[in-house]
Design a protein that fits this description.
By secondary structure, the protein is of the alpha+beta class. Helix content is about 20%, strand content about 35%. The protein has four helices and twelve strands; from the N terminus they run E-E-E-E-H-E-E-E-E-E-H-H-E-H-E-E. It has a four-stranded antiparallel beta sheet, with helices on one face. A four-stranded antiparallel beta sheet has the order 10-9-12-11. A two-stranded antiparallel sheet has the order 2-5. The chain starts with a strand and ends in a 14-residue tail after the last strand.
Length: about 220
């Protein structure tokens, strides 16, 4: 089934209420995970749709409220797509290094592509310097599974970094572009994903036999 690919075009601070001063933030929210939209209605002939959303992203990076500023014009599809948006995850806005809630306007371009599934593992680091150091260790021949278990800050560390079989279309486009280059056994460079840095590895099904494998 061909599903819509969501390409984020821009994220803007929502202002316009004359009685309220706009919040001061140094860092806007960054989209790190997308739940795919439902299949587009068969009557949609355009190669892509450009849509706009008003979102309240809370301090935990969750979408607390969402409204269409410009939808597709198909009420049923818009409702289903909005349900997907409510499951998106962001790195939250920050003011003086503290996560804060923020209203933003998210512009998206919707294209249609086939899902692309891969078995993936990850090593997550809090900063680029640490992540780059781990990349160097991996290129020197260190074991990915052992480093993930020892150094990764993700909950997948207990599974030696194993994420499971994932549709990579759920990642931001820049991450997808890196993942599609991978052959089995290869790793990516350090990739910034919100407020963390991730090294992905393309692995085979059932790669880790020492830990319980669970698809996310």
């Amino acid at each position: 089934m061909r599903l819509p690919l969501i390409v984020t075009v821009g994220l803007l601070l929502m202002v316009g209420c004359k009685t309220v001063e706009p919040p001061v933030v140094e860092v806007l929210p960054v989209l790190i995970y997308q739940v795919p939209f439902p299949p587009l209605p068969p009557t949609v002939n355009a190669s892509y749709l450009r849509l706009e959303l008003k979102l309240l992203v809370n301090k935990d990076g969750e979408v607390e409220r969402a409204f269409w500023l410009r939808g597709s014009g198909f009420d049923e599809w818009d409702s289903s797509a909005l349900a997907a948006v409510n499951q998106w995850k962001y790195a939250p806005a920050r003011h003086q290094s503290t996560p804060v809630s923020l209203w933003v306007r998210q512009v998206v371009k919707v294209q249609v592509r086939e899902p692309l599934y891969m078995w993936l593992a990850e090593i997550v680091s809090p900063d680029m310097a640490t992540s780059d150091s781990i990349v160097s260790l991996l290129r020197e021949g260190k074991d990915f599974e052992a480093l993930a278990r020892e150094l990764s800050t993700s909950e997948t560390a207990e599974r030696c970094g194993m994420m499971g079989r994932l549709d990579i279309r759920t990642f931001p486009l820049a991450v997808q572009d890196e993942l599609v280059k991978l052959r089995r056994g290869e790793i990516t460079k350090s990739i910034r994903l919100g407020d963390r840095y991730v090294i992905f590895k393309r692995v085979g099904e059932g790669w880790s036999r020492t830990n319980e494998i669970r698809s996310l």
